[in-house]
Specification:
With about 300 residues, the chain is α/β, with parallel strands linked by helices. The chain is built from 7 helices and 13 strands.
């Protein structure tokens, strides 16, 4: 059974100031998502599921259907505030979506096979998809999930601080938990983290989550159960979010294993508008090195 790729594209890109998910970065007008899908197809994925807001459905379908038809199966799923809330009454003034774990839950009806989850606006690299596909086809079970771990040094921005999920590993090298660290930047020769937590400096070899996960379909039942609890506890807050690491953390507490799959790929993404030229240059370097054709869907 071929694994499925789930792409989280419902965020409104508030820091970036525009809908960066559909911005062109490649020489033939490719979005970052195009490269992820291209890598996923090469690695053996059989379906891509876009999680979007319903108001962007036409824009997404007109952008991707002509390119992907005949190459990979596609599905479009909407993350709305009333999705999977089972009658829960949330504040009328709430506009923010419920977070990444809720977004994945919205794909429950269309994903019945082992699947990977990625962000729409992050470039993950060919090797990362190959490693993920291998895990999903050979090792993924109802009791064993995985995360693709990147070196922190390859995920910093030259234009401002970043927030990263820092992976804590157990004695076997599996995931013990993820701590969300904010305001991370390279200052002089050290990587500092100004968020009041310890340690205030992070090692060069620190593994971080860039939200590239590998799950068995059992993930949906875990998530559904936890989302109900989350709403009870946090649903009246206007900006509370239900994140994937919360589900993974509980899964580990209940005896599940989350493997940390290493990759040789370099990550890059668009957090700030100033990152865009760097992303374009990085893609061009990969094209020049023969990693991608000049026009990936030609």
């Amino acid at each position: 059974m071929k694994p499925t790729l789930v792409i989280l594209a419902a965020g409104m890109a508030s820091r970036y100031g525009s809908m960066k998910q559909v911005q062109s970065f490649g020489p033939a007008g490719e979005t970052i998502m195009d490269y992820s899908i291209y890598d996923a197809i090469r690695a053996g994925f059989g379906k891509v599921v876009f999680i979007i807001r319903s108001q962007f459905a036409e824009q997404f379908q007109s952008l991707f259907e002509p390119k992907l038809k005949g190459r990979i199966q596609t599905e479009y799923v909407f993350q709305e505030l009333d999705s999977h809330i089972n009658g829960y009454s949330f504040p009328a003034e709430r506009t923010k979506p419920w977070g990444t774990a809720h977004a994945v839950l919205c794909a429950k009806e269309v994903v019945k096979e082992p699947f990977a989850v990625i962000n729409a606006d992050d470039f993950y690299g060919r090797n990362a998809f190959e490693q993920a596909a291998q895990f999903l086809q050979q090792s993924c079970t109802a009791s064993t999930y995985a995360i693709v771990g990147y070196d922190l040094t390859s995920t910093l921005s030259a234009y401002g601080t970043v927030n990263r999920g820092v992976c804590m590993l157990d004695q076997q090298g599996d995931l013990a938990g993820i701590t969300e660290r904010i305001n991370i930047a390279r200052v002089d020769h050290a990587i500092t983290c100004e968020d009041g937590l310890t340690p205030s400096t992070l090692g060069e070899d620190t593994k971080v989550s860039m939200n590239f996960w590998c799950f068995d379909p059992s993930f949906f039942s875990h998530t559904e159960r936890q989302f109900a609890s989350f709403l009870k506890e946090n649903g009246q807050e206007l900006k509370s979010e239900f994140f994937i690491p919360l589900v993974a953390d509980q899964f580990i507490k209940e005896g599940g294993t989350v493997k940390v799959v290493s990759t040789t790929s370099n990550w890059f993404g668009v957090t700030y508008k100033e990152d865009a030229p760097f992303v374009q240059n990085s893609l061009q370097q990969l094209i020049d090195a023969g990693e991608y054709p000049q026009s990936i869907w030609a």
